Amino acid sequence: MSTRREFLHETTYGALTALTALSGVGEAGAATRSDTGFADETISPSDLDSDVGSLYPFVQSQAVAGEFPLSFLQKEFGDVGAWKRAARGKLLDLLHYSPPGCDPKAETVERVDRGEYIQEKVYFNTTPDVRVPAYVLVPKKVRLPVPGIVALHDHGGFYLWGKEKLVELEGEHPVLTDFKRQYYAGRSVASDLARAGYVVVVIDMFYWGDRRMLLADDPADWRERPRNLTKERIDAFNRRSGEGEQLVGRTIYSAGFTWAGVMFWDDVRTVDYLLTRPEVDPRRIGCVGLSVGAVRSAHLAALDERIRAAVVVCWMTSFPAQLKRRVRNTIGHTKLVPGLYRYLDYPDVASLAMPTPLLVINGSKDELFEPSGVRASFEKLAACYQKSGIPERLRARFYHTPHEFNAEMQAEALAWLAKQLQGA
Predict the structure, then answer these.
(1) What global pTM score does this model have?
(2) Can you tell me the distance from the alpha carbon of 26 to that of 36, in angstroms, rounded to the nearest whole number?
(3) Which of 183, 242, 288, 393 has the fewest beta carbons under 10 Å from its own?
(4) What's the confidence (pLDDT) of residue 329?
(5) What region does 82 belong to: left with phi over 0, alpha with psi -120 to 50, or beta?
(6) CB 121, CB 135: distance < 8 Å
């Protein structure tokens, strides 16, 4: 079987040969683009070295070149508040999802003493019709009220569990333990935050955990998730769910809203719920997440000014740099906001968090992102925070790591949150 590199080489060579034959140019020349809608131009080998092959030049031609129209770095924007109203308003419009406010109507169905903190299983409403499951961790032996944290779980191609990725549980499935070992240095981030003196809430994102997609003929093991569920069966469920994302996304768009809208608004409503807790100081709320959890963290800070500190781990980039060959495993229906990137690049969206302190961490060996795009996003965030007069409230840095939230990163995140929310 060919390696991926060999496969890309073979397919690229084959496409070039076919295009050369069609255009009649010699071996030293390049094919014309007339058959793909470009006149008097050529397709170079580098154009074809893309996940979308000969279509890439057209896609690239449609992307924003230069500064994005609603970036805070545009000269017309001087006042942060006025800019945020315009840019945030555009983001909210394009989400096509604006559920009415509602009473969370929270119900605690389980309460377990974990020694250093109390673990509650809670259900609450994020819309009048949507009720989400959550774990709430309340530290013991602290003077209340304390800061609150919205902890946001990842995608990971791992759908059978959601909130459990961040919380310690009795009888944790070994496959879930292995997942934490790979991406979280074997730690349960929410539990560690509770030990550090925060009230922490973790919900299941739509399509994950208790909100996963089940079909009418699904077997009992996928419905009940027993302790003896085999790795093969877990892998099969996760594979089915991954394949189903496209259909679910298309179905959502056909209904007139966006998956990202559901995801982001659930997180905003989670802050609503958190502020009903008497143990929580409403002036000291933070958020943290890895991967899609980082997308959620960045957008939660951008959309909700009650967030006073945010940590974004392994999901920061400039979108034009992703288009050539980095969309495949990064930009799925869960994160897509159609039309947004005609107005705002991803770091522009993240800068909507200003003046909230923002810690952004990426791995230099993270193959999901084009390195130049990550560097560009760091530079833009720094320029935005500098223009707004608060450069010290941003920290953006690389670790020489792959896509993960390792122990060293977690230590930095804890220190950042403690500085911003606890004055440590």
Answers:
(1) 0.89
(2) 20
(3) 242
(4) 83
(5) alpha
(6) yes
